[in-house]
Design brief:
Number of domains: 2
Mean pLDDT: 94
Helix content: 40-55%
CATH topology of the largest domain: EreA/ChaN-like  fold
GO molecular function: GTP binding
Number of helices: 17
Largest sheet: 8 strands, mixed
Keywords: GTP-binding, Nucleotide-binding
Strand order of the largest sheet: 1-11-12-10-2-7-3-4
Order of helices and strands: HEHEHEHHHEEEHHHHHHHEHEEHEHEHE
Domain SRP54-type proteins GTP-binding: 24-37
Distance between the termini: 23 Å
Structural class: alpha/beta
Pfam family, one: Erythro_esteras
InterPro entries: Emycin_Estase (IPR007815), Hydrolase/PRTase-associated (IPR052036), SRP54_GTPase_dom (IPR000897), UCP036794_erythomycin (IPR014622)
Low-confidence stretches: none
Radius of gyration: 22 Å
Strand content: 15-25%
Number of strands: 12
CATH architecture of the largest domain: 3-Layer(aba) Sandwich
CATH class of the largest domain: Alpha Beta
């Protein structure tokens, strides 16, 4: 099997990868099979530098809290704060501890120091301020939106009304809610009223956009819109946390994916006149296929952000999956696709999925993950990927 597969694989370079992708793109999704393996964010950094220098890319979005991402963007944009502060306060999920993310911010800041303002690189978080088992209080997002509006237009409700509806943050952020939906406040009368109020505030933001942008700036309006989107998503997520039906977990995953897709849509629209965007996240968030994972004693499925985004962008969205062969004692079985690719001489290779489909004379077995965070290559889905970057050993 190795000989025919060899015809579908070439050594990895950023130039070879981009030559394989459709053009023109607005959004390039680069997925990683698991978190915490530095080889993949390091490869991301290498690719992003090439995209900036040769393909006109001006922004990157990571699987991290979209509101915290504003802190990282302020650092790379104009040097606000220090690098250590940007890593500590600008990333969620512990991703600020990754050496590759430190190098990414350092390089972006250095680039912005020597380029004209219109060539400035932007950093985005594309995730909501949540995890599957946790969601932030909507206070920060709603307060930012309210204060932005109140500085320029007459408001239908007072700030005191908003604070009363929000109440203390502790019930919103109680992680015990994941195991006991009855303790969630996501479907209380106050939470339902907050959802209506948020909708009203976002309506005001849209209706008064000409005045607000003229009084502040497009960037300030975009930031307010980001807080509005985030408040809407958080309230929807807390509502789903109170669900007691069997669909609860898949609903939570779908709400999170929709928040990601909404953020990506807003980023693409904002960056349309500047250049394409690279987004880096787990493969399950960026793939075109329906995502799935084991949960408790069952299996849950949902449409990820990449699947939703690809419907909107069509061939202006490309998905590149990354994967690996050996990781310590975790060695792929010879009859898995990862095992076959591991026999090739390239330390890092680019697989042409269409050519791979043509040369395979039998369907490989799907690799059995050594840990639950790893997403193995699905041999039946390679034709829905634009390229596969395979790292032989991590």
């Amino acid at each position: 099997m190795t000989a025919p597969i060899r015809d579908a694989v070439r050594p990895f370079t950023s130039a070879s990868l981009t030559a394989m992708l459709p053009s023109p793109l607005r959004l390039l999704g680069l997925g990683e099979p698991t978190h915490g393996v530095e080889a993949f964010p390091e490869l991301r950094n290498e690719l992003f530098r090439y995209l900036v220098e040769h393909e006109g890319y001006r922004s990157i979005a990571l699987e991290s809290d979209c509101l915290m991402g504003l802190v990282a963007d302020a650092y790379v944009g104009d040097g606000t704060g220090t690098l250590d502060e940007a890593l500590r306060r600008g990333f969620s999920h512990g991703h600020g501890a990754y050496a590759a993310n430190r190098e990414l911010l350092r390089w972006m800041r250095a680039h912005n120091e020597r380029c004209a303002p219109d060539g400035r690189l932007r950093f985005y978080g594309m995730d909501g301020p949540l995890e599957t088992a946790y969601a932030a209080s909507p206070r920060e997002a709603l307060s930012e939106l309210y204060d932005y509006l109140a500085a320029h237009i007459r408001m239908p409700r007072s700030r005191a009304d908003l604070d009363e509806l929000l109440g203390p943050d502790e019930p919103w952020t109680d992680t015990a809610v994941m195991m006991d939906p009855s303790t969630s406040i996501g479907r209380t009368p106050a939470a339902r009223e907050l959802r209506l109020l948020t909708d009203d505030l976002r309506g005001l933001l849209a209706a008064h956009a000409p005045l607000l942008i003229a009084s502040t700036s497009r960037d300030d309006w975009w930031r307010a819109d980001l807080h509005g989107r985030t408040a809407t998503g958080l309230l929807r997520y807390h509502d789903a946390m109170a669900d007691t039906s069997p669909a609860r977990i898949s609903t939570l995953l779908s709400v999170r994916a929709t928040m990601m897709a909404d953020n990506l849509d807003a980023i693409v629209r904002r960056e349309e006149r500047r250049g394409p965007t690279l987004v880096f996240a787990h493969n399950s968030h960026l793939q075109r296929d329906r995502s799935g994972m084991g949960w408790a004693d069952g299996h849950v499925e949902w449409w990820g952000a990449g699947a939703v985004t690809s419907v909107h962008l069509g061939d202006r969205y490309a998905f590149v999956t990354t994967n690996f062969g050996t990781r310590g004692s975790d060695v792929p079985a010879p009859d898995s696709l990862e095992g076959m690719l591991s026999e090739l001489p390239h330390e890092r290779g680019i697989v042409d999925p269409r050519r791979l489909t043509e040369v395979l004379d039998r369907k490989p077995e799907r690799r059995v993950p050594a840990d639950y965070t790893y997403a193995s290559l699905d041999p039946s889905a390679t034709d829905r990927m634009d390229a596969v970057v395979f790292v032989r050993e991590v």
